[in-house]
Structures
1.
Amino acid sequence: MARPLLTLVGCTVLRGSKTVLREIDLEIFPGEVVCFVGHNGSGKSTLLETLAGLHPPRHGEVKALSTNGSEVIVSDSEGRRAPLPGLTIALQSDGACLDESVIMRLKLASTVAGVDLSDQDILKMMAEWSLLHRSNDRLATLSNGLRRRVSVLSALVPALKSESQMIVMLDEPSEGMDKASKELLRSSIEELRSQGHTVIIATHDQDLSCMADRSVEIENQTISVIGEHSARSHGAKDTPINSGDKVMEFCRWAASLERKNPIDTIKRLIPSMIAILLIGSIGSGIVSSDGLFSTSFYLLLPAFITTMVQPAIIDRLSEGRSGDWWRAHMGRSIRPAASIVGSSWLLPLPLTYLAYTIISTDSIDLHPEAKFWIWLPALAIIDISVASTGIQLLVSGLKRRGAAVASLMMVILVWPFLILVDATTLILQDGMTMELGLETPLGLIIASSAISAGIWASAVLIPSD
């Protein structure tokens, strides 16, 4: 008898304080088409997303069969999380940032799924789905129906072109589609079935539910299964893309969006430039009136301000549930990756030197080598920025944001900043030395970075669910 590919064992799932599914046991077998059916609000989407690891069960566990035959805990009530192997998914919403172009979304979905497709392959599929003329358009410019088509196609394309058996999850895929698109969807599902892929659909569309090998009806927080499973071969030829590759794809995605639309850079630059203008209007004499510590504080302040600004990566991940799409593929690694790639990398160094140019005049006695070394504390500001982004990502993912005391962790970042001010003071006064110790510039900079790293680790390890 074939082993189940996905298993729910005694799963109770809550959405907020409401229990949606209670003590659910379910097995999904390789190669079958399964439909979740029920009235609106019955829990179809919740059950599908629980299988994808997006909703941790209050009780029970979700297990998956990997390509090497071992079992993987996708999620459980003890807090363990792992991405589902071989997954492609279309959420009920877009699952994409609206700054992405159509072809970018389809190429990204294929790459993340571990399927290397040429532009010609993707353009051919787009032509079949009447999307070719919009290939370079941003998703924001498309109608809701076209965006739905792109979302579903991004889940179908990798599996249709893959030599490995995959798990395809579709949440209300036919919603908002015209008759021609629905026919394409039905034929694609039949093709996936013939190739041995596992297809899981949450739908109220009877034309789709009648295609299922088995139906799972959800009512009153419980399920009833209709039909017998017909497992097909799950002999994968290729190993799905590993988590490290997905992290790299996520970083490329975030960087490409920032290049196309540098919202993050602009958001951080505006308040820091205002600070520099204020420093310039105050004058170097007043800035230095309290000594070199005051000078160092104002020198690093514009760079520090950039670390406190909410990063654009948070908005991009919340848009169209883009973050949930990534989380389904990456598991918990998304927050550490997002905290690093979404931090302020470009601004601290030029802002520090710009502030130095404004502050340094003949009225301030600075060490002649200081300007050659202030890049070190400026770079350490980046460590504070990574920690700050990690905290803000944690807070944005908490279910009860109003009660999120985690945001108070931002205040702690003043500590490593003041240590950097001390280090900069020593550099301005005596120049740089390579000696280590808590009374040397290098030692203080290392201490500041270590504290920032500790705060970052705490932020990315605290679960938000």
2.
Amino acid sequence: MALAIALPVTAMRKLNSITFRITGLTFLAIAFTVLILIYLANVQMTEQFKEYRVVQQMEMSKSGYISGQMVTVVMGPLEESFLMSVHKSLIWVGLAILALGLAASFFLARSITVPLRKLSQAAQQMEQGMLGQTVVVETKDEVGHLAKIFNRMSEKLATSDKLRKQLLANIAHELRTPLAVIQGHLEGMIDGVIEANGEQLRSLHEEAVRLNRLITDLRDLSLAEVRQLTLEKQPANLNGLVTRTLGMLKPLTDEKGIKVDCTLAENLPEVAVDADRMCQVLYNIFVNAIRYSPFNGLIEVNTALINREERKWLKVSITDHGPGITLEDIPYVFDHFYRGDKSRDRKSGGSGLGLAIVRQLVENHAGEVSVESAEGKGSIFHVLLPVDS
């Protein structure tokens, strides 16, 4: 019984296939055209042949071969045989055209449906969790264009899944370290191994602050990525934000003896930004520049008003003279938890979220952030904000 039900379902699926639908419609159009042509050709052939016989007999009557008789059309065996052979020839030609039309319509349909079937199979495999599936692009038509789009989508999904897994691993790593320190100290205090003095409590407090900062950064980053981070935009002076941020970081620059050279453009127009978030952007970039600048080094800051793509932009450039970024690391500088130093030693940098937050906050302000760097020659971070946003 189940087999009896399955067979009609399979047959219905085949009949509903695009291959059969395209083949059937194309074949019906060809068949209708051929039948009409054969019918008209047969009718025209018979009528024209009869007219030819009438004209022939009239000419014979005028020339004296036939006299005093009414001209009638007489179809002899030869004429009948000739017409029959012509009709048969037209029918065979029509059948041949129908066969060629059926074959051509079938191959035309398959040339469309076979790539679609491959796309469907690849999509089903992706649905089952096997990401990164691609199909061969064999044509340059709409189906080929669809295959290219599918391949790009598949690659992005695979990359996103890889980054998601890496993000979870990095979050676990970053949370485990301060929690392990806090747990170890508290267990030592409970067991009496570690004395609960002011120094130990300050150490626990520092780890708690670091943990809280990491969680806050993760929250801000996740909200910024889904465009749900609330921005209180007000007209602000970009030079004032730069000066304010450098003032907050003066103790860090003084500690390393770093000189900050500011070249701030005059008469810059105000730009609508969330001042606190934009200070966070500048703060993260400056901290990154200070961290990688040598002792007694130099950090250069420039602001300017530029025209690009028929719009006015405010540009902030922050240049350090540190070790720079390798060419293979530059595309990933603004990714979550990414750092050139794979050892993940805290001495070599923070949690790796600072620049990721920078990118998301700048993009939420309809701006752009980029980096130029060469290994051993330092880095230049550019932040662009549209004036009319």
